[in-house]
Protein: Cell differentiation protein rcd1
Organism: Paramecium sonneborni
Amino acid sequence: MSNQYVIVPQNYRSDSMVSISPADKRYFEQAQAKQKSPPQQMMFGGYSPSPSLQKTLSTQLSEQSIDEFGKMQKDSDTELVVQYILQLRDTEKREQALSELSKKRESFPHLAPLLWHSVGTIAIFLQEIAVVYQHLQPAQLTPAQSSRICSVLGLLQCLALHVQTRSCFLRAHIPLFLYPFLNTSNKSKAFENLRVTSLGVIGALVKGDDPEAINFLMQTEIIPLCLRIMKKGQELSRTVATFIVQKILLDDNGLNYICQTPERFFAVSQVLQTMIDDLHQSQKDDQRLLRHIIRCYLRLSENQKAGEVLKKYLPQVLKDPTQSFIKDEVVKKWHNNLLQNLSIK
């Protein structure tokens, strides 16, 4: 396993990775002891905090975050989330807390800012990730270990999606910590779940068509890692990896980057061709994967140099405009546009 995937830049410093001070520790213990108290005494909830509590919070959260947290609905869901965040610091309760917080990703919109700004939480996530590295080579990851780290990755996906935490997530170079998980080839369910969930974090970054995220990923090894999974991975991981490459191609800088050198272009086009051949020969009806492949080809055809080369290297099965294995009407339209761009009748 290459060390380049886990090195944090020397000039990087994150307030969310500092050690918990004795004062902070006492505060968390006091907040945890008040779990049975009325909601207005809860941490992070915005329940008219006293001046002393406001001062304590200000050491952990930005003023903007405090204002937003102050608008949170006073409900039991908020109380539970705060309790689970506090329990992350207890190693005996951490696994259950990770699982419960992961379940709240869809239903609790403020989860990402709470996780990012609470002291020590990101450091705990990175610690959980680092523990798994020793089980990658040789492959010794158990289903229980996979489930636990997937809960962590689910929470990282939440951070990658949220508009208030995405930039911080990128500046902290946290995606790099996931690359060893993508560089595995073991086909067991535990490792496949690990790969798919890790890809889900990267997919969350590119889902919003954020140029900052695309530019960051292009400076890393994400494209070769995705191409490897697209070529040899299992169904779901192949689909998510292809989606990530598609989103990079849809960005102008991403398209120019991939088409800048023959090596990059052929690396992508040859993997796409292998995937098309696999789908055609196996007669497997995987319309979702096919959708991403065709969209990648269409985008490549919009680059003048790449389009000229694609005329020769486009898979023979795709040169037929009447192919019946393309069933989605939108994908059929993309296929026709592809042939028009390449002047193939």
Summary: The CA atoms of residues 50 and 343 lie 70 Å apart. The first helix runs from residue 22 to 33.
